[in-house]
Amino acid sequence: MKIPAISIPIVEIPLEKNIRLFLKREDLIHLQISGNKYWKLFYNINSYLDRNPADPFLITFGGAFSNHIAAVAALGKEGHLKTLGIIRGEEIQDKWQENPTLKLAQENGMDFRFVTREMYRDKETLTQILEKEFPQALIIPEGGTNEHAVEGIKYMLTEETKSFDYLCTAVGTGGTIAGISKFAEEKQQVLGFKAVDDPSLYNKVSDLSTRNNFQLIEAHDGKYGKITDENIRFINDFKQKFGIQLDPVYTGKMMKTLFEMIEKKEFPEESRILAFHTGGLQGIFGANELLKKQNRELIRF
Q1: Would residue 66 show up in a list of annotated catalytic residues for this protein?
Q2: How far is 151 from 110, CA to CA, in rounded Å?
Q3: pLDDT tens digits for 212-249?
Q4: I need a surface site. Which of 13, 149, 288, 299 has the fewest CB within 10 A?
């Protein structure tokens, strides 16, 4: 099984402004392999399968609610490929069945190996151990970000996207914005909305894209995965007004920050802005479990 390229619709978000805002619905690619995860895996998986490995095996890394873990597991099921997830945190080893992301990944055939947070941070050593244990496997980095991922992201850019002045995406590990930056038109400005407070991101993106046409904007509320009541209200209001579901970790924070920038008139008049919906909607189930325990408003899904 090889991942095919797919055409994705662009929809306008109506604003009573002299600025036009559009959303490219990458979340519609696949129910479980959605958004940028699809494209970041595109070249990684296809180039691996082109080598005709005798026993195809995918290994990757992620936290308990990782969109990437969920996507790799789903891809493995569709392609009849064995998958192994290296999961951060031994403390969930005996209760992972309570986690909706890991439960879904397991149902899609993924095996798990839980490691300490200290060991997880040392990805280089961990990867070397896995390479010796599984020499035939494709080991995909956390979030899927590498040079192959950047090449895959170019498929998010089409003839239609060339007409926009600004290209916007949420940023986690940096692969998506690096790919958009690398393949954007000369006249286009690329805006990345950071879901994580990582000081190394700018240099990482710059190295992968080799261009300086991008800007990183804080959108993480001080902590990766933090969900404020304001975030929840924005996501629910957006769904009610425009009929589009946003996730609480990436696209919800990007669109909220983007709306605030438009309201503050930070874009020139007549600007055409394109934001990419990078999927990740499976994370809503885990978020709502946490919100229930905190007796807070839920994300309507």
Answers
A1: yes
A2: 26
A3: 999 999 998 878 888 999 999 999 999 999 999 999 99
A4: 13
In which residue are the tokens 């990007």 written? 254
| pLDDT classification of 5: cutoffs 50, 70, 90 | low
Q: d(Cα 103, Cα 286) in Å, to the nearest integer?
A: 11
Q: Which residue has the tokens 């909607």?
A: 281
Give me the domains of the chain, ranges plus CATH numbers: 10-31+155-293 (3.40.50.1100), 38-144 (3.40.50.1100)
Query: In terms of Cα–Cα distance, which of 8, 180, 193, 300 is closest to 201?
Result: 193
Reference 231, options 198, 202, 193, 273; nearest CA is 193
Phi first, then psi, for residue 43 (nearest 5°) are -75, -35
Q: DSSP for the chain?
A: --PPP----EEEE--SSSSEEEEE-GGGS-SSS-THHHHHHHHHHHHHHHT--SS-EEEEEE-TT-HHHHHHHHHHHHHT-EEEEEEE-GGGTTTGGG-HHHHHHHHTTEEEEEE-HHHHH-HHHHHHHHHHH-TTSEEEPGGG-SHHHHHHHGGG--TGGGG-SEEEEEESSSHHHHHHHHHS-TT-EEEEEESS--TTHHHHHHHHH----EEEEE-STTSTT---HHHHHHHHHHHHHHS----TTTHHHHHHHHHHHHHTT-S-TT-EEEEE----TTHHHHHHHHHHHTT-PPPP-
Cα(146)–Cα(148) distance, integer angstroms: 6
Q: Which of 7, 34, 66, 200 is catalytic?
A: 66
Pair 115, 84: CB distance under 8 Å: no
Cα gap 105→282, rounded to integer Å: 11
Residues 280 and 66 sit within 8 Å (Cβ to Cβ):
no
* pLDDT tens, residue by residue, 67-110: 999 999 999 999 899 999 999 999 999 999 999 999 999 999 99
